[in-house]
């Protein structure tokens, strides 16, 4: 989303998002510590004629949102989930969309939308009139990300001039979004839904999207001249360097290293933990990971954290975080709790933490792990810090 683009400083997830989340959660906890002060100040404003602040129910809403009964750790987890949900929120996207429109208005009317994946703008005059387009197949790809690409056959007025271009579903969607900035919806065909039931990268979904996208581009080419002949469309269907690989008719073969059992990839990176002990409970807050290596095929992993409290011959102490998607710098802020651990037992225990990439039907890939001897930590107070991830070894704060 645009919000993630701004906070991360680009279109790739980065450790800047860790700083953003940490600062937001620190601010939230600071406000929570002064809940009663804020409620008293807002209570003085009940008679000021503000529609959203007129009775005790409005104060209760603020009280519930601040969650003063929660610990700082629980509140951090809660607020992190709010940040993550806001990234996909329609309201957030609408807010950034309105700001973008305002920016376009004040940067001058000559600014025209362009496609992020096209280095140059192409026109009907420079490329030649497009006579027909046909989406002939979809192909499985593994780089730069795992998914499907769609091969479009483009025929122009010049006899025998046929080119093939490869575009992802997201690139089709970008084209549609940019066209909506230029033309009313009444002049544009409807775009296929992004949301599907079940696995979003399955063969059946790709086949269905192929048919829907084929109809979409046919209607684009046969739309009103101001749409069909616009620079965005001619740029979209102009070949890129990567499209030379689509000139043939055979599907791209699967890379040789895409086997069914990939258990160990490159290891590396660091994990930020907060470790504390209270009332016979060991609390492990998994906060962030930075610098994970990409997978062997060049894609970003789908990382999650798994912990054991050793010795554990029956493997009853396994705890897991949620899976973060397509990132080498995930944020979790999830609390993993071990209950019923007497303080005397901590001296004999080791926290074994592993970071793995979820691979669906394949074996999950180990991205790094670290062992933390609890006897090396003074758990009389919270310990927070970064631990280096490797193939094996012990970490220290």
TrEMBL record:
GO cellular component terms attached to this protein's record: cytoplasm; phosphatidylinositol 3-kinase complex; plasma membrane
Name a biological process GO annotation: cell migration
**Pfam short name (any one):** C2
Q: Which residues form the C2 domain?
A: 267-387
Q: Which UniProt keywords apply?
A: Kinase, Transferase
Can you give the residue ranges of the PX domain? 128-244
What sequence ranges are listed for the domain PI3K/PI4K catalytic? 1-91
Q: Which PANTHER family match?
A: PHOSPHATIDYLINOSITOL 4-PHOSPHATE 3-KINASE C2 DOMAIN-CONTAINING SUBUNIT BETA (PTHR10048:SF30), PHOSPHATIDYLINOSITOL KINASE (PTHR10048)
- State the superkingdom: Eukaryota
Q: Does the keyword Cell division apply?
A: no
- State the family named in the UniProt similarity comment for this chain: Belongs to the PI3/PI4-kinase family. Type III PI4K subfamily.
Coiled-coil positions are none
**One MF term from GO for this chain?**
1-phosphatidylinositol-4-phosphate 3-kinase activity
Q: PROSITE patterns, from UniProt? A: C2 (PS50004), PI3_4_KINASE_3 (PS50290), PX (PS50195)
Q: Which InterPro entries match?
A: C2_dom (IPR000008), C2_domain_sf (IPR035892), Kinase-like_dom_sf (IPR011009), PI3/4_kinase (IPR015433), PI3/4_kinase_cat_dom (IPR000403), PI3/4_kinase_cat_sf (IPR036940), PX_dom (IPR001683), PX_dom_sf (IPR036871)
User: Know the name of this protein?
Assistant: P3C2B kinase
